[in-house]
Amino acid sequence: MSEENQSQPAFQERALARKKVTSTLSRVAKYSAVRLVTLFLTIVVAIFLTIVIANMGGYVDEIRRGEIRETYNQQAAMNPAIRNLSVEERRRWVEERVRLEEHRLGLDKPFMVRTVSYMTNALTLNLGRSMHLTSDSGSRTVRLILLERLPSTLVLFGTANILLFFFDLYVALYLSRRYGSFLDKLFITLAPLNSAPGWFYGIFLILIFAAVFKILPFGGMVDTPPPSSPVLYALSLMKHMILPMLALALSSVFLAVYSQRTFFLIYSSEDYVEMAKAKGLSSRDIERRYILRPTLPTIITNFALGLIGVWTGAPIFETIFQWPGLGRQLFQAIGLYDIPIILGETVIFSYLLAITVFLLDFIYALVDPRVKVGGQGGAPS
Amino acid sequence: MNQLRKSFRELLRYPSAIAGLIIVLALVAISIYALIAIPYNEAIRLWRGGEDVWYMNPKNVPPEWINWFRRNDLPASFLLDSRSEENEDGTVVKETAAVSEDMNQVTITFSFDYPYESYPQELILYMNGSYTEKKPYVAISIITPDGRELRATEMSIDEADTYRFSQDQRLQRRLRGAAPMIGIFSVPDTDPPVPLQGTYQVVLTGFTFEEGSDFDARLVMHGQVAGWAGTDHRRRDLSVALLWGTPLALAFGLLAALGTTVTTMIIAAIGVWFGSWVDELIQRVTEVNLVLPFLPILIMIGTFYSKSIWLMLGATIALSIFGGAIKSYRAIFLQIKESPYIEAARAYGAGNMRIIIFYLVPRIVPLLIPTLVTLIPSYVFLEASLAVLGLGDPVLPTWGKIINDANANGALYMGQYYWVLEPAVLLMITGLAFALLGFAMDRIFNPRLRGV
């Protein structure tokens, strides 16, 4: 397309430019459609695997069968009309009910058929009913329980990650300008701190700021009882978010800044940067156009991988901080052996990861001048 | 080999690498010591043991070295045994005098120094009598440093009998309602109670009524500090878990890092070498793996099947093989594949697997070593994370399980900081040591990073 473009006469250029915009749009649409389909297929496979792991050897099914039988045995014992029947008749009554219920739930179908039906249920977020846990409104529908917890998780990790991304970038640029300074050396020295996960620093921070100095709360999302006015609510929320965000920052900032600054340094010794300096461009412009532009894709990829890591670590992080999010729900579900919730959580986390991957793919394509969304290869136009 | 030695010498130029190396070696030494000093079965017996194993320890007390940082020492815990000659924390005197043909008077006197400004948790006598029909009968009393004699109780002794001073209601009444530990160890009639320092004596005066009948006693004081690591809510000495946690953490970290990186590398090499659909398949699997939520799946496996540390290790490796690293290895292999020496190998008729194992893989081993070392801490912490979530190995004592116990029992709220800090500091040190080492190695093996 680019070769064609150059061979066109000048008066047609404007028309072509308009066409290019529309074609870019359609290409973006096509690209995202293709990407969405691929990702959806990826999710299907991932959830299929999840369900196979969860249900290996029909383990969950056995538990459900046992539960059904127990329910009807109890009913038979409670119901006076049935209690008075003979043992043989009562047994037949229970068997009949169990058979019907298993048929209704599809438990009498072959393993593969069952797995496929579970998978469709999981994909459509038809997650069934929990065994013990309830949502705050008292519902036992797994989807409602999880959706109720989703916003808290998103608020914490969303805010933390966006803030951290820009903070990292800013500090890294600053340090690459002051290469070799004390602050630079400090960040390099502290980079190994990332070997410990966020929850680990959380323990220390809680110990220092909550247990010893008693200036910040031990955990939770808002004060109890929750403040009624929105302003106070937001303030209370912010107060509770300080320690978790600090913990996330401690576990990631130093390494991220270190690796980004190293990248910037490597790229700032490129010839075209020297050239730009010789031309007399301001250092701001050099940073933005000549250093940040080519390094951004790599930085975003690293950030994406980090984000995925954080998502995955949420269960323990939220448990330590008593944050009422998805992760802590998972922890509670483990404690109560609430299988539908554990399965549902895994499915939701798969979706979250897939959405992250999709968004970052897209952003990646937007910021990298060499990658054209939906274009053929990396040829510049 | 020469290359390796050169790299190693270069590594020693980095102070951080030396520090890391020293810590790692120290951890290895601790592991070896732990494995030798407390054999596997003994460690499990101790860690799973209840009151029968740990009766001499107080509950939830910090380690003894906490006294180095305090103006007023906290009472230490000790055990005095009338059967053993040597008792480091006090003296035991046992005297037997014949009263009549069958009857003996046995006096056991425990004396111990009490120089502390606070009160112990508990004072317990464990007594063992030997008799055929008539039980020995003892009177227990305490002689305080100012010469008062407090009568505690009188009782007959079974084969195994226990007397807990703090749970004796009559003793409490005799001490005018003060809790026995405070009443015994205070200057009389002070309010608020003032501890009385000096040498205390617990005297057992008993009679045996048969020939050959005898009794022995052990005096256990539960102080407010114990051992060099403190104790937990089940009176267990944390040093067992701290020691044994070291080899387990190192083994888990090392095996997981090794298993993951090596298999990832070989799979990347296979994909690059065979190309076409093999490569494509590996790429797709990597994408699926990226969407699989790692920790929730591990949690699922832990809840549904088994919490064994080795199953977790296997699952971890299996889930990490197709990680993001496969893409970077692939990029490097793609370059190496075009090298002339690979062509030469193909020309002399080397098979596919031979080229992959002997020609492709060794080329990126230098790149692999720093990655491997920096990966170790993340797996050490993964094991701890699982334990903190309550999915630690049910039998083995690990650092993460101590944190889990502490967290579950609200150690931070109750101010029992040592309980959390000890395993956390060990984890931190381990993580930092490997990270320091890995960072230095990365600089040596990655020439692009040199000078920046």
List keywords for this structure.
heterodimer, A: 381 residues, mainly alpha, MetI-like fold, 3 domains, 14 helices, disordered N terminus, B: 452 residues, alpha+beta, Jelly Rolls, 2 domains, five-stranded antiparallel beta sheet, four-stranded antiparallel beta sheet, 16 helices, 9 strands
Task: Please outline the helices and strands.
The complex is a heterodimer of chains A (381) and B (452).
Chain A: H1 2-7, H2 13-54, H3 59-78, H4 80-83, H5 87-105, H6 111-123, H7 142-177, H8 182-190, H9 198-212, H10 230-268, H11 271-279, H12 283-320, H13 326-336, H14 339-367
Helix pairs in contact in A: 2-6, 2-14, 3-5, 7-10, 7-12, 8-10, 9-10, 9-12, 10-12, 11-12, 12-13, 12-14, 13-14
Chain B: H1 2-11, H2 15-37, H3 40-48, H4 51-54, E1 78-81, E2 90-98, E3 104-114, E4 122-130, E5 137-143, E6 149-156, E7 161-164, H5 169-174, H6 180-184, E8 198-208, E9 214-222, H7 238-274, H8 276-291, H9 294-304, H10 309-320, H11 325-337, H12 340-347, H13 352-391, H14 399-408, H15 411-414, H16 417-445
Antiparallel strand pairs in B: 1-9, 2-3, 3-8, 4-7, 4-9, 5-6, 5-8
Helix pairs in contact in B: 2-7, 2-16, 7-8, 7-10, 7-11, 7-13, 7-16, 9-10, 11-13, 13-14, 13-16, 14-16
Structural commentary:
The complex is a heterodimer of chains A (381) and B (452). The longest helix of chain A is centred in the first third of the chain and has 42 residues. Chain A folds into three domains: 54 residues; 56 residues; 218 residues, MetI-like fold (Orthogonal Bundle), CATH 1.10.3720. Chain A has 381 residues and is mainly α. Chain A has 14 helices and no strands. Chain B is an alpha+beta fold and 452 residues long. Chain B has two domains: 252 residues, Orthogonal Bundle (MetI-like fold); 156 residues, Jelly Rolls. Chain B is built from 16 helices and nine strands. The mean pLDDT of chain B is 87. Classes of the chains: A mainly alpha (381), B alpha+beta (452).
